[in-house]
Amino acid sequence: MVRLSRERHERLEKLLMAEKTRLWTEVRRELFETLGQELRSQYDLPQDVGERSLIDVLADTGLVVADIRRQELTRMEDAMGRLAEGVYGVCEECGAEIGEERLRVVPYATHCVSCQARQEGPPHGSGVTL
């Protein structure tokens, strides 16, 4: 198994903390500033049934976005746990280090680019030709 150097561990920890802070900031902004103020002002105005339905759809959309952020934050917590265990930044499939460039883009990645591509690619021997 690959063991993280102290320097790499510190860089990856800073990367994770920055991403986690960014996500929490987005969640707070979306929920408390954007949705809260917009929906409160919308409900203060008289509306017909159609307008109220549109507002409900917008509120549901906001909740979907918040749920996506929650899922990302859960993945970030998992990544922080892997960092504490000393296995963050190591591919779960092949055991190689995951490049820091990849981790900057997908901080909760558990596979290197090659293994992720194999997982997402078409199955071998599917009989389909293009």
UniProtKB/TrEMBL annotation:
Database matches in InterPro entries: Znf_DskA_TraR, Znf_DskA_TraR_CS
Picking any one GO molecular function of the record gives:
zinc ion binding
- Keyword Zinc tagged: yes
The UniProt keywords, alphabetically, are: Metal-binding, Zinc, Zinc-finger
Report whether Zinc shows up as a keyword of the record: yes
Judging by the UniProt lineage, the source's domain of life is Bacteria
Q: Which SUPFAM superfamilies match?
A: Glucocorticoid receptor-like (DNA-binding domain)
Q: Which residues form the signal peptide?
A: none
**Mapped zinc finger ranges (dksA C4-type):** 91-115
What residue stretches are annotated with the Zinc finger DksA/TraR C4-type domain?
87-120
Q: What is this protein called?
A: Zinc finger transcriptional regulator, TraR/DksA family
Whose protein is this, by species? Answer: Geobacter sulfurreducens (strain ATCC 51573 / DSM 12127 / PCA)
